[in-house]
Design brief:
Chain A is of the alpha/beta class. Helix content of chain A is 42%, strand content 16%. Chain A has 2 domains: 18-87, Winged helix-like DNA-binding domain superfamily/Winged helix DNA-binding domain (Arc Repressor Mutant, subunit A), CATH 1.10.10.10; 94-204, Rossmann fold (3-Layer(aba) Sandwich), CATH 3.40.50. The first copy, chain A, has a 7-stranded mixed beta sheet. The first copy, chain A, has a 3-stranded antiparallel beta sheet with strand order 1-3-2. Chain A is globular, with a radius of gyration of 24 Å. The structure holds a DNA duplex (22 and 22 nucleotides).
Chain lengths: 258, 258
DNA sequence: TCTTGTGAAGGGGTTCACAGCC
DNA sequence: GGCTGTGAACCCCTTCACAAGA
């Protein structure tokens, strides 16, 4: 889902699979909870359960980081927390800017896990001059005109976009031009960025639509449960190949603009 | 990332790959935009560009739905919009409840794409009695005590959890007990659900941490750029195997509670 | 004995490249 | 000539199952 990065063959060894990287934060969270409860060691089985994955996957994931466990015993919690944090780059503070101070932007600014260690909100930015100066989560909103200065002055490399869809690409372009190389996009648009810039997106309506798909499936199965495997693929599949456009202009469903 | 569902071999044919399902909303969005501009047909190349994927992937994806294109011409926009909407189950309105009316919950309630066709907010719910009755996005907040009644009365099958992490599992359990079978979780916790229930999660800090990982990588490459392939994998890899726990209790980084 | 670390097998998804059809 | 639909190759990820080691 990320993009950009040339990902050259990684001059040997340094190749942690993307799927593994995506799970490290999950392990880290589980380990942090154990750490707070002063649990000294944990087995792959226990930790996997806490993270919601299976233990073989977890062990394989950790094997990319090195041999950090002890056979017959398990993993040292504190040590793993440190190693994963380091691997994820959380041993330093990343300054981030949030652009777009609507409901969502404000929600993120107030989100605890955000302002906590590893990330620091360098500035909140909005294009609305009326918002400028207002405090959100204790920080003053800065006007969009200042975007470039803020990014450069604070050496910001990570930007979060929470603007309306229409403004997202322009904001993205400006962030990138000013030096940002990683973007987390909450606006429902496909962003175009130059090579070397990573984009990750969080899209509410896509998630909901995926759930709707499975939900519909369930409802369908319930019905065919009794019949099942008795009736053939029914004539329901009238469409396909020949007929085409059974009601292309008539019974069109209302579709989300999202 | 979804879970639950037994996903039986799908009595022949009905098997659309999960990866394809996840992209259908993207295609639908691009197609809707074309539809609004009254574009009649579109090629796989054009549509793929608009959706941010490559054309071979798009054609393969569409092939799972059926043969909806015309060789030498392209795809009929309106027709595809209809077919994808139907496939995703958006030809009906899904009532959803949002539980947890903090900043994030309020943001979602106000989010346009949410309330638009395909999904309908059946209720906003919060455990804080002080919030009860207050209007958010034009809807009154209902107290958590009413959760079960709301779900049953409105036949809600999709629930969105925007509570603090500590409350998420309990809310989830109650939703499921009341009949919800799909959950979109914004709380930073792993939810445990019975078979047959789908969970998707949206996790801000995980996304940021993944970006930080790649960002760190970039910074490292910049340095080794000049040297590159001249120096061997350096002694930097002091750790590994032998030594163990170089500073397990000393220079521990501050780690996010995530 | 217990649990990690990992080759090897298996499964999905992506990409290629071209046959099929307009 | 142009574009779709799709077998086949390829690649990545997951899972299995067991050797290695505390």
């Amino acid at each position: 889902m990320a993009t950009g990065r040339t990902h050259r063959p990684a001059t040997r060894s340094r190749g942690i699979p993307e799927a593994t990287v995506a799970r490290l934060p999950l392990y880290l969270r589980a380990l942090t909870a154990l750490s707070e409860r002063s649990v000294p060691t944990v087995s792959s089985e226990e930790l996997a359960a806490a993270a919601g994955v299976n233990s073989a996957k977890l062990r394989k994931d950790f094997s990319y980081l090195g041999s950090y466990g002890t056979r017959g015993v398990g993993y040292d919690v504190e040590y793993l927390v440190y190693q994963i944090s380091r691997e994820l780059g959380l041993t330093q503070d990343w300054p981030v800017v949030i652009v777009g101070m609507g409901n969502l932007g404000a929600a993120l600014a107030n989100y605890g896990g955000f302002a906590s260690r590893g990330f620091r909100i360098a500035a909140l930015i909005d294009a609305d001059a009326h918002l400028a100066g207002r405090l959100i989560a204790g920080l003053p909103v800065r006007h969009a005109d200042e975007l470039e200065d803020i990014v450069e002055d604070n050496q910001v490399s990570i930007g979060v976009i929470t603007t309306p869809a229409g403004a997202a690409q322009e904001v993205c372009d400006r962030l990138v031009a000013a030096g940002v190389t990683s973007i987390l996009n909450f606006a429902p648009t496909v962003l175009t960025v130059p090579d070397g810039v990573d984009v990750r997106k969080v899209d509410l309506s896509i998630e909901l639509q995926i759930l709707a798909f499975h939900e519909q499936r369930k409802a369908g199965e319930e019905l065919s449960e009794a019949v099942d495997s008795v009736t053939p693929p029914v004539a329901a599949k009238t469409v396909r190949g020949g007929i085409k456009r059974p009601g292309s202009d008539g019974d069109l469903p209302a579709v989300m603009p999202a």
